[in-house]
Amino acid sequence: MTYYREKIIDRQVGRNAELFAQAIARLDSPEKRYPYLRILVSLIEQAHPEWNQAPNKDRQIAQLVYLMSKGQLDMDEVAEVVRVRDEERGYFYDSERSR
Fold first, then answer.
1. Which residue among 20, 21, 73, 89 is least packed, with the fewest CB closer than 10 Å?
2. Per its UniProt record, what InterPro entries does this chain match (predicted)?
3. Helix count (H) and strand count (E) of the chain?
4. Distance (Å, rounded) from C-alpha 14 to C-alpha 11?
């Protein structure tokens, strides 16, 4: 059994998602990270359905991913992935608020 010295950032999302975020951070370009960030964002949305209606959902998820990756993933990059996913579903952000 593996023991971790650090506490899980978000118990609802879980340790595997946290390790996944850290692995994504090791990829060397936004293009390589993008499909994996979409998967990670989906996992977070499933773990936190209450965030789906939050007006700052993109920044909220981006901050969580930033913490899960130990500060290795850019919050703006992650927030953009969240906004793209939401736009595909028909939800559009106020461009001034999301920057």
1. 89
2. DUF4290 (IPR025632)
3. 4, 0
4. 5
Amino acid sitting at position 21: A
Judged on CB neighbours under 10 Å (0-12, 13-18, 19+), 40 is buried
And the tokens for 28?
Answer: 């060397």
The tokens describing 14, both together, are 């879980």
Asked whether 65 and 78 are in contact (CB, 8 A), the reply is: yes
Contacts 24+ apart (CB under 8 A), 29-33: 30/77, 33/73, 33/77
pTM of the model: 0.87
Per DSSP, 50 falls in state G
| pLDDT tens, the chain, 99 aa long | 566 788 899 999 999 999 999 999 999 999 999 999 999 999 999 999 999 988 899 999 999 999 999 999 999 999 999 999 999 988 877 754 444
